[in-house]
Amino acid sequence: MHYSQQMTYDAYSLPDTFVLDDIDKITDGIIGEYLVYICRKCGSVERYTYKELEQLERKRISKTIIDSIARGEMVKAAPLRKSKVLIYCGKCNGLDGKGSCLIETFKECKIKRLPDV
After folding, report:
1. Is 109 exposed, middle or buried (0-12, 13-18, 19+ CB in 10 A)?
2. How far is CA 41 from CA 2, 32, 78, 93, 108, in A?
3. More reliable by pLDDT, 15 or 44
4. CA separation (Å) from 12 to 6, 44, 87, 94?
5. Hey, which residues does 56 pair with through a beta bridge?
6. Which residue among 9, 32, 39, 63 sits deepest, i.e. has the most Cβ atoms within 10 Å of its Cβ?
7. What stretches of the chain show up as alpha helix (H) in DSSP?
8. How confident is the model at residue 74 (pLDDT cuts 50, 70, 90)?
9. Burial level of 80, CB count in 10 A (0-12/13-18/19+)?
10. Which is it for strands 35-38 and 45-48: parallel, antiparallel or unpaired?
């Protein structure tokens, strides 16, 4: 996603966005309000506040960390592969990249105990 200054300006320039009574909001800045972002992959246009962006980024980083920890556990368990049966839990990308791990890894996994966020 990337910030679109022009689309943000256009969104705030609409006649029904601000009335003269809100002039203090304009002069004090709209930092607490939304900014307009465009998805680089699909082109969708979204409005986010800084708090919402921070929350999205924290979730993304948490998922990346969980996936890297899970990948490390799977690499350690690789020599123990006796069966090729996979169990799906969906807490990480898993061995197959879709959320499934070997039975041995699943039984010992600490990530599956994490609450869903």
Report:
1. buried
2. 11, 27, 35, 21, 37
3. 44
4. 10, 18, 49, 44
5. none
6. 63
7. 5-13, 23-28, 50-77, 103-108
8. low
9. exposed
10. antiparallel
Contacts of 112 (CB under 8 A, 6+ apart): 89, 91, 106
Give the chain's end-to-end CA distance (angstroms, integer).
22
| Buried residues in 29-43 as b, exposed as e (16+ CB within 10 A) | eeeeebbbbeeeeee
Q: In what order do the strands lie in the sheet with 45-48?
A: 2-3, 35-38, 45-48
Percent helix, strand, coil in the chain, to 5, is: 50, 15, 35
Per residue in 20-38, pLDDT (tens digit) is 666 666 656 655 578 889 9
Angle (CA) 26-27-30 rounded to 5° is 45
